[in-house]
Amino acid sequence: MSRRIADLVTYLLLGAGAAVILAPYLLSIQTSVKTPAQFAAASPLALPAPITPQAYAELTVGGHTLIPPLVITVQVVILVVLGQLTNSVLAAYAFARLDFPGRDLVFWLYLATLMVPVVATLVPRFVLVSELGLRDTFWGIVLPALFGSPYAIFLLREFFRGIPGELLDAVRIDGAGHLRAAARGAAVAAVASAKTPHRAATEKVLAWIGSAEGVRPIAAGGFAFPGVTAAEPDFAAYWQKQGVDLKPFLDAAKGTTFPAPVGPRVSAGATAAEPALHQVFLGRVGVAPGLRKAQDAANQAITS
Amino acid sequence: MPSTRRNRALTGYAFLAPSLIGVLGFLLVPVVVVLGMSLYRWDLVSPARWVGPANYTDVLTDPAFGRSLLVTAFFVVLVLPLQVAFGLLAAVLLDRRLPGATWFRAVFVLPWISAPLALGVVWKWLLDPSDGAVNALLGQRVEWLTSPALALPAVAVVTIWTNVGYVALFFLAGLAGIPAHYLEAARIDGASAGQTFRRITLPLLRPTTFFVLATGLISTFQVFDTVSAMTRGGPDGSTDVVASLIYREAFTSFRMGRAAATSVALLLLLVTVTVGQQWYFRRRTTYEVS
Known about the structure:
By secondary structure, chain A is mainly α. Chain A has 16 helices and no strands. The interface between A and B is large, with 58 and 68 residues.
């Protein structure tokens, strides 16, 4: 009962907040379809009568068209977002994951710029843009914003620090440079949340990691025997070159295969199998009965 | 190994290069230029003339500067506590994850992603004494933006209205970072919802609170767009915040030296306040959530 009252109070408060936030927007929309005569004569709260698209016609094809400024804005946004994202991810990765002299000093320098009021440096920036010959030009707006923002770098750095180090190191061991690791890190940051709204994208990434294409870099470097059979030839070729014959391994892998266990209780199965396997390694139980015992224990743990 | 050391430094600075160009060119060098400019008299047209510390004595003895400091401080005091309190309240309500919470969250951040100048214009129209919707709703004529007593609180309310959703987003992230078993343990021990919130949630939110207060303080001290769109510093200078004074000195009076000296004063003030705030929070116990 008290839970339902709490829910009701929550909705009342959220509803009141949403009404206060939305009211100016709704009033603007309502007013945008009024005639100039009604706007001048009637109360601002009155419903539009008659409804007229006149203002919107004026803003699209009329004398006050918004189309050219809109096109320019879209161009600015695309360039600035691309530039800021790239440059901020690079800097944030360097601050979070690389170790080099002067790193912390430079980071504090970046942070300190957050305290500089925008108006305070208005004049020098105006002069700088003029000196570059960019006053009143498209690039005069875009260029200063292109290099990445300290604020975004600060937030992204926290994000990168939240990604387990092993995850990025694993990407690096696969032979990727820091550049690839930074890009992968950004991708992980984007899908890391378990409650992600981008379920489909997350699944796609995970599926790729489990595919032959995704496993190939690990196999081709000879780092681990691939679980994906399509990646086996790369692994064999690597060790062949090192003078190691993998035939016994490959033959063993040609036998009956079965799908790897999946589901939320996989690790419970592994844990359950462990004691029986330990008995085998200690020589207290024979291999065949020990394996059977481990298998039964694991299956029971997974299905229970 | 000196070569790998140098290699590491090279990689690091290669990654930083693009953003470093921007930070140096468009943020740090301008600050240095402002420091230099504050020692000259310059109107953008005729050659700059060295005047030494004269701009500073002018600014410090100008009553308009003292007034702008008071107005800014009053604005910060009006906005910051309410903005953080309402942001926290919204976050706690949204964190209950009732159906529709995502929709409410989207609505709450709407003002933050809107252009401040456009919002300022809309609010100026809503608060118009004779044709405004707010007065139509109240059924009486209130001089919101045209009386010196009400103008600053009105601008403050609009600023809070703009920022609440953004603050709530940070608190939501902070709340998500608190391990559920801490709260469970408190509940099992018989703590009431209020006790749990005061003794567990609030202390564990301290890093978030610090972040929200620090960035909020810096941005409210620099408020410009909203004031510029709604009141232009008036009436009678009652909303003449430091940023709008700087803008007027520079681009209306064309006194670049005085504008620069005022900027330096604002900068020093912000650094002092931020460092002081950091020191205060460091002294208090902080809790690591991992």
